[in-house]
């Protein structure tokens, strides 16, 4: 089942070659930062921790109370940090060290992805998605669901990649034109759909990368 991704949107093709890959990345990063900044709440917490203790405390409280609706006890049980220590952190009486921050972040990611079924995020134009015959991938004896993200522009593809990671994708399959940019924005393996190779093969490669 050979296929290739469609050409990028004309608006992207209009950029001069001198713009360069790095310039294109910076362009889209600045353009999409307002979306990305809130696309992954755990990343938002990490950015807040780099800003100040006050920003970290405010963001952590917001995620626990308004987003996840979990208690200090719930967080304590998942991250292994004593409730008394968490109370001090949440009330601004203690600054979290790197080890504590790491455990909190790990626990929050578990809360956000609790119950999620592992899947491969397939980002492509609708004609490519319609050519995919299987919505489940059988890779090395493991079964994985393929979740589709139809896109029309480069901006759509980048936003879809950030969204797919937040929703629990263990790997992403996309067009070569956006893969290098997406690889710099997400923390999961990214595989491209290469001409004359099937989408199914790209999905299998993505799964194997995720399991390494």
Uncertain residue segments: 1-18
Largest sheet: 5 strands, mixed
Question: What is the fold-level CATH name, i.e. the topology of the largest domain?
Answer: Rossmann fold
Order of strands, main sheet, comes to 2-3-1-4-5
Secondary structure: helix percent: 55-70%
Number of E-type strands: 5
N-to-C SSE string, H for helix and E for strand = HHHHHHHEHEEHEHEH
Would you state the CATH class of the largest domain?
A: Alpha Beta
How far apart are the first and last residues' alpha carbons, in Å? 26 Å
Strand content: 5-15%
- The Cα radius of gyration reads 20 Å
What's the architecture of the largest domain in CATH terms?
3-Layer(aba) Sandwich
Quick one: overall form?
elongated
Mean pLDDT: 78
Describe the structure.
The chain has 212 residues and is an alpha/beta fold. It folds into two domains: 41-112, 434 Repressor (Amino-terminal Domain) (Orthogonal Bundle), CATH 1.10.260; 116-211, Rossmann fold (3-Layer(aba) Sandwich), CATH 3.40.50. The protein has helices at residues 10-13, 20-39, 41-51, 53-68, 72-79, 83-90, 98-112, 126-130, 154-166, 176-183, 199-211; strands spanning 119-124, 136-139, 142-150, 169-174, 190-192. It is elongated. It starts with 9 loop residues before the first helix and ends with a helix.
């Amino acid at each position: 089942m050979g296929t290739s991704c469609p050409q990028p949107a004309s608006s992207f093709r209009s950029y001069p070659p001198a713009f360069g890959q790095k310039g294109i990345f910076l362009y889209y990063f600045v353009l999409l930062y307002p979306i990305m900044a809130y696309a992954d709440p755990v990343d938002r917490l990490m950015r807040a921790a780099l800003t100040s203790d006050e920003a970290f405390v405010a963001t952590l409280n917001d995620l626990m109370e308004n987003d996840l609706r979990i208690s200090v006890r719930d967080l304590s049980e998942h991250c292994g940090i004593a409730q008394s220590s968490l109370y001090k952190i949440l009330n601004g009486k203690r600054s979290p060290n790197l080890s504590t921050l790491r455990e909190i972040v790990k626990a929050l990611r578990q809360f956000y992805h609790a119950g999620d079924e592992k899947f491969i995020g397939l980002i492509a134009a609708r004609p490519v998605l319609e050519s995919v015959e299987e919505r489940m991938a059988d890779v090395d004896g493991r079964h994985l669901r393929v979740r589709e993200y139809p896109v029309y522009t480069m901006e759509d593809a980048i936003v879809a990649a950030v969204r797919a990671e937040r929703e629990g994708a263990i790997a992403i399959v996309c067009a070569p034109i956006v893969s290098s940019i997406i690889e710099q924005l997400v923390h999961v393996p990214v595989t491209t759909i290469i001409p004359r190779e099937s989408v199914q093969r790209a999905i299998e490669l993505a799964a194997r990368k995720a399991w390494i």
